[in-house]
Each structure stands twice: as C-alpha cells, then as structure tokens.
Amino acid sequence: MKKLEKEKRKLNKKRKYFRIFIRFFIFFSFIFLLIFALKNSNLFKIKNVTIDGNKNVSTATIKKVSGLNKGNKYFVISKKDRLEKIKSIPYINDAKISYSISGNVKVNVTERTPYYQIESNDYLIVDEDFRIIKNSKKKSDNLVNLSGFNVDDPKAGNYILTNKEDEEKRDLLLELKKNEYSLRGNIRDIELLDSIATFTTVGGIKIEFGSYSNTSYKLRMLSLILDDIKKTNKNAIIIQMEKGDNPILITDGEESKSKNNNKNKKDDNNSENKEKSYREKEKN
C-alpha cells in the first residue's frame, strides 16, 4: 500500500513538472512568434534616415555600411552591430543611432580630425589616436610630419605605433600635446628613431630632444626656452636637450663655433648663465 502511494506521488510530481514545462514552452513560443511577427511586419520599416555630423564621409557610405536604408527593417540588424559597422569607417570616431516608432532614423556621427602625416608610398593621414584615416597623394601643410619608423600595414583604419617597442614613442607624442607645455601647434616635424627623437618647430628651429627618458622635465625646459626665444627675438637654430647637464641654445652667430668646439671662455660663461636662467625659470 505504501509503495503504491509513493509511486502515485512520484507520478503527480512528474505531471506537475510537465504542466509547468508546457506553460513555459507556450509562453516563450508566444513571445518568439510575437517578436518574429513584429520584425517582419511593416510596423518597423525605415521610412526616413537622417545623417548628421559627417563632412568627409558621405551620407551614402554611412547608410550602406549600417544597412539603414529606406524600406529596410530596422530590427533585422541589432543597434550594436550597426554602430560597430559605422565606427569601422576609418574617418568615424563615434556614432549614435535613434529610432522612432514612426520609422524615422537619426544617426549622429563624430569624425576624426587629421593631425599627423607620414610619407609612405602615399601620405598616410593619421589622427590623434594614431589611427590611419586615409591615404592621400598630396602633402598637407597643416599637419605634423612624422618619420623615423616603419608602418607595418599602412591601410586606412589601422593604427600606427601599436607594438610594445613603440610604447616610448607613443608616450612622447601624447606628452607633447599636453597644454601645460604650450607646444601644440608649434612643432612641424617629429622624427622618432629607436633611441632618440628630433623635432623641428614651425619657425625652423631644430630640437635635438635626445632619448625618451625624463620626458616631462625636458618638455618643460623646452617650453621655457622657446618662450624666451620668442620674447628676446634670438636667432635660434638648434636646441640641444641632452648635451651636458642643461639644455644648450645655439644661435646663428654661435653655430660655427659650436660645431668646431672653439668657444672662448666668455662664450662659455654666457652659455652657463643662459642655462642657469632656464633652470631658475623652470623651478619657479
């Protein structure tokens, strides 16, 4: 008798679980069919697409890449996938998509700004995040010229200086743009070799920056020296950042003496006083 009751309880338990399973199955089947019906109905058809923020990338390109065309079903492709496809366009930095139940889609994009150029087979135009945004046949006069290293894959959309050994070069470029040094817009050429870096200012002053060590200090000193040159109208030619304990400024009249190492004692004292004044300014 007890055995029969036990089997009956087991059977009732199985029936209970089966009824729960059937209810969940019916519920999720209904949800699936509802979503399927909504996706394939005319309710979510795209009626109009507006693109804002694009100047260098055509509206047609953004629509094609994202699949946002009039008559297409909006929810056939997820919003995340559409955004990733738009941001895969080399010139696009960020994008946002909004959709209204009336079928209107609005896309706001933020484009990348050219900052560097690298001479390769063509000119590689690179933004501040080190992404190649396009290849150009023509050299620009308004961009910072980068040289001294190889670009493994010079294709638009790829990034430069991505290897571990390029980390110091990347850090120097990032440091150079900081507002505290006031060097942004004042550097025209940057050569990044394996162990040393060299700059040229917009005014044609060559800066022998030296190694990638002690970067912050050297940039502060460089900023002070360039500011002093501007105020005193010195005819500066070269600034040597790692020739001795202090930076050395070479002007037009001192160049030949510097090259031949034939400065007299008075010149040495003048240089020493200049170097001390730069150091005092840096401390203040």
Automatic annotation (TrEMBL):
All residue ranges annotated as the POTRA domain in the record: 44-112
Biased composition (Basic and acidic residues): 254-284
Pfam families: POTRA_1
Transmembrane segments: 20-38
Statement: the UniProt record of this protein carries the keyword Cell membrane: yes
Record localization: Membrane
Entry superkingdom: Bacteria
InterPro entries: FtsQ_DivIB, POTRA, POTRA_FtsQ_type
Keywords: Cell cycle, Cell division, Cell membrane, Membrane, Transmembrane, Transmembrane helix
Disordered, as annotated region: 249-284
Cell cycle in keyword set: yes
Protein name as it appears in the record: FtsQ-type POTRA domain-containing protein
Organism: Peptoniphilus grossensis
Lineage, broadest ranks: Bacteria, Bacillati, Bacillota, Tissierellia, Tissierellales
